[in-house]
Amino acid sequence: MKAALLVESLTGNTWKAAEMVAGHLQDEGWSITGLDPLRKPTHSALQDADLVMIGTWVHGAFIIGQAPWAIGAINALPSIGGKKVVNFCTFALNPGRTLGAMEKAATRLGGDVVGGMALHRSKLAAHTEEFAARLVGALV
Ligand SMILES: Cc1cc2nc3c(=O)[nH]c(=O)nc-3n(C[C@H](O)[C@H](O)[C@H](O)COP(=O)(O)O)c2cc1C
After folding, report:
1. Average pLDDT of span 16-42
2. All domains of the chain in start order, with CATH
């Protein structure tokens, strides 16, 4: 499987999570065609990928109003028609409906959303390992 990762990160957690997931996937024999900021996608990396992984962080009032930061940047991505998409977010307390909002946005871009996972910022090692294992199990 070939995956391109697109990431929005303010303080580094989501970027770190993306690097960790990419490392686990490479250990399982996957190719990573790119790991780029969401706002600066590399078009060739997207074209070469079977799977696009979109990651951002949860923004809100912690217990209400949670949403994916950079939803505008997700909406502005080039078409990902025909690609499988997996979303992920990092959060501190409660991700709310962040993944649902990301799924809607990716579907509007023509992506085939096959899953997503919210990763707790203080459990990135365990959660990225589980995330990668689930992906490898689901997408052969
Ligand atoms: C302004 C602001 C609002 C936040 N709101 C929430 C929230 O509503 N729920 C939550 O679980 N985490 C919230 N967080 C925590 C971030 O989602 C979390 O720290 C995340 O890992 C940051 O990712 P980054 O390091 O990639 O920027 C908020 C952080 C900031 C700075």
Report:
1. 97
2. 2-138 (3.40.50.360)
